[in-house]
Amino acid sequence: MSDEIRDYLARKRHELGLDRADALAAIQATLDAWYPGQARARQLHQGVLHLITPNATVAGELRLRQVELLRRHSLADTRLQISIQSLS
User: I need a surface site. Which of 14, 21, 33, 58 has the fewest CB within 10 A?
Assistant: First the structure.
C-alpha cells in the first residue's frame, strides 16, 4: 500500500472518529487493570472523557489518578467526567 493511500485512510479514519474507538479500548484496558469490573470508559467526545462506575470509592480514586490516566493515553488536553451509575 502506498504512503498516499495510507495517509488518506488515516485522515478519513480521524474524520470519522474511528481513532476514538481505539483510544477508548486502550483506556478500558487500563481501567480493567486498575479496577477490574468496576469502571467503564463510556465516551470520548469533544475533549471530554466520560467514565462511569457504580462505586463512589472508585470514582474518588479515579479523580486522584486522572492525570496519570490521561498522560498514559496522551490525552493531556482532555477533561475527565466521572459518573456514579450502574455499568449495565
Answer: 33
CB atoms within 10 A of CB 61: 16
- Could you say which residues of the chain have pLDDT below 70? 17-18
Question: How would you label 39-52 residue by residue, b for 16+ Cβ within 10 Å and e otherwise?
Answer: bbbbebeeeebbbb
Residue 65 CB partners (closer than 8 Å, separation 6+):
34
Query: DSSP label at 46?
Result: T
Helices 18-34 and 3-15, packing angle to 10 deg: 70
